[in-house]
Amino acid sequence: MTELVLSRPVKGRSLWIDAWRRLTANRAAVVSVVYLLLMGVACLVGPLLTGHHYTTIYTDYVRVPPSLTAYPKPDQISGMLDELIRRMRVDLVAWNDQDDRISLTIRSSRPIDPRVVRYFDRSSSFADPKVETTSPDGLTLTLSTAVAKHYFLFGTDNTGRDLLTRTLIAGRVSLAIGLLAGLTAVVIGVIYGATAGYLGGRIDDIMMRIVDVLYSLPFIFLVIMLVVFFGRNFVLMFIAVGAVQWLDMARIVRGQALSIRRQEYVQAALALGVSPLGILWRHVVPNTLGPVAVYMTLLVPQVILLESFLSYLGLGVQEPLTSWGVLIAQGAKNIPSATWLLIFPSIFLTSTLFALNFLGDGLRDALDPKDR
């Protein structure tokens, strides 16, 4: 007598598990994810470790080039001392450098006020000035001051602010703007477009005519109205901008939904009594995620560039905040004399856009149900 062997039921794989496995098998996409995560961590934590605040102005270091060694350089100290002596309106007798402190002797034809040390406090290169000795007639003073060491790995900008710190702060702003506007556009566009495409008929006509009306509104006028309502709060403003960018997303998803609603598995789900909401969530939306992911990776850089344009018009990010687009625009004006002002922000922006594109290609391949 033949024995029947009962095997355990095979556990199926969901679309999300299968997509995750396919995504992790794509090396370019995995490297892009790691890079974007590292970029996000660097922009969040980096400004706390550079030793500079993004608003601090170093008057002695305006547009200094990048350097791995500390400023001031040995050949710069003499010139800085001469500038301070000129402002103090005294004569420099002698100076010497001992153990990171400078000792200098000054003389004047009139008694010298010991408060002249305040000129050293105003300098970015010196710190902790002290009056060591004063001559009986008050015409000669011996001062000592420490040399303040500053590292500018990316150099400084036109006003003497550390470019590395400002580039990382700009990354916070640019990435936040791109993600906020992109996620807002995706959520609204996918829900709106999938609903219109699946329901079809008169409802689809009415919903898409609303999209056409919104398309006809002048974009700049709409942005100006948003600034009037939300003020200079760039977070609220770009969430609202993302709420306008969903129009393209809605059309893309609607076209996909019109094709998906005629597929056999959707008709089978209807025959089994699945509700329209369930069909939208389990069948229509998952099968549109491939084009949505690709468009999302294109929308983020588009919003970043849009932010640069609005900031140029005075409607976007304002000082002391900055963004990669603003830094690149400022660096382009200084190409002949300070190329580093353009190179470093451009590298950050370009590498991030490449990573987003590679990630978008990986998501498209992983979420395409035809390749399962």
TrEMBL record:
Any GO CC annotation of this UniProt entry: plasma membrane
Domain of life: Bacteria
Transmembrane segments: 28-49, 173-199, 219-244, 265-281, 293-317, 338-359
PROSITE patterns found in the cross-reference section: ABC_TM1
Subcellular location as annotated: Cell inner membrane; Cell membrane
Keyword Transport on entry: yes
UniProt cross-references to Pfam families, sorted A to Z: BPD_transp_1 (PF00528), OppC_N (PF12911)
Domain ABC transmembrane type-1 as annotated: residue spans: 175-360
Keyword Hydrolase listed: no
Family to which this protein belongs: Belongs to the binding-protein-dependent transport system permease family. OppBC subfamily.
Protein name, per record: Oligopeptide transport system permease protein OppC
